[in-house]
Amino acid sequence: MKIAVMRERVGGEPRVAATPETVSKLVGFGATVSVEKGAGEASRILDRFYTDAGAKVEASASAAVKGADVILAVWRPEASALAGAAKGALVLATADPFGNEAALAALAKAGLSVFAMELMPRITRAQVMDILSSQANLAGYQAVIEASMVYDRALPMMMTAAGTVRAAKVFVMGAGVAGLQAIATAKRLGGAVSATDVRAAAGEQVESLGAKFIMTEALKDASGTGGYARELTKDEQAAQAELVSGHIAKQDIVITTALIPGRPAPKLITKAMVESMAPGSVLVDLAAERGGNIELTVPGQTIAHKDVTIIGLLNLQGKIAATASQLYSKNLLAFLETMIDKDAKALKVDWEDELVKATLLTRDGAIVHPNFAGSAEAAPAKTATAKAPAKPAAKASAKAPAKPAAKSGASGTGRAAKVATAGAVSVPAEEKPARKPAAAKAPARPAAPRATAAKKPAAKAAAKTTAAKKPAAKTPAAKKTDGDV
Length: 485
Ligand code: NAD
Hints:
This protein is α/β, with parallel strands linked by helices.
């Protein structure tokens, strides 16, 4: 049983799909592990750390992959890069299947069994394998760190001999995995934190973190299926906008994370709302990959609008690559472990396992996932070159399939259904061509490597004006909040 770990080829992706810890576990299961030279460098894992863990470091990708029964990767590798792998080799990666049927067909034709880790069902057994959660959690943390570095003031309240510094007001929109971590991080940094969500259940979680939950009285609960939100009606949207417009004008930092399965990210913050904020305010749009929650967001970029900074960077978890790799690798190990017979020290895949069925895209030369099976014929391998992205840029343009995917075989969990409809994955900002924020598209989630841009945007200087804070555009009519946040 040979397992290969490749260096990522998506431009600038700093994460890696195995760490010395996971390598050592795999070796313990009887595997031979080959790691491509330099694979872990951007995550601070030197080749010799892998060697110490029992891996063999190979000088090239082809040497690492040669004869491999399993390939571990952050992003779906191109079929051509896996040419020497064993027949039927398993590929575990963020596969980004939506809109990439030709690339999938090529992998199928190469006889590989590709698993899309982002389609992992959201059930208790699979939590340890959930790459969306592990990476969204880190993105939520990093969003606050990014904001704090651009924000020109201290976050915590400080009572000093020279005077009192007030706590920064931080508002988090969307209290899912990323939002809750953003709340927790902002609280730890001493911010006065408030948050909103359209699911009533999120209120308790927000308050358990010590933040203030705000929600319009008009919106009782917009929970959809599988723990996700449903799209708001026009009236509900108007009520939410009224609440937000009043609240946002008083905030220093806003982190948006709101997503709805199978839809572009809801637009929650208008240009006028941004302009109502005080000079030096900062917004981070974690929904940038799906078009953004903020009207002004430019996916992949940090921009200044008048005196306010809007961070639309992708793959924020890639900025803490060492940690992101640690958790991502553990997700992969946990899934792969279910496919290893430890006594026989060999692969033994239960093709009927619900996790396998939910994530398996290709097998025995065909695309087998129910959401993509039809596309195997539609996108023969010969068209792959023309259609498949030379670079993961195409990840950005993954299109949502027409129907939501309760059919994904995800045991009624919602995660696979969500991803199946929403598409998956994001991409390194610096590798993507300019693209339009998703309008009809509803792609991706996590990922996008270490941004090389300076922490503080150049335009930041413009935010350092002495202009007075503008008043709130409107006082919300119906809301639950208080004057502290
Ligand atoms: P998500 O990424 O789909 O959306 C982020 C948040 O945005 C959600 O909380 C959603 O309710 C909210 N949202 C949508 N529209 C909004 C709007 N107009 N205004 C404000 N907020 C809006 O969500 P997620 O992070 O994947 O998590 C969704 C739920 O699933 C959470 O309750 C989470 O705790 C749960 N979850 C469960 C598991 C598991 O059981 N294994 C794993 C991960 C997450």
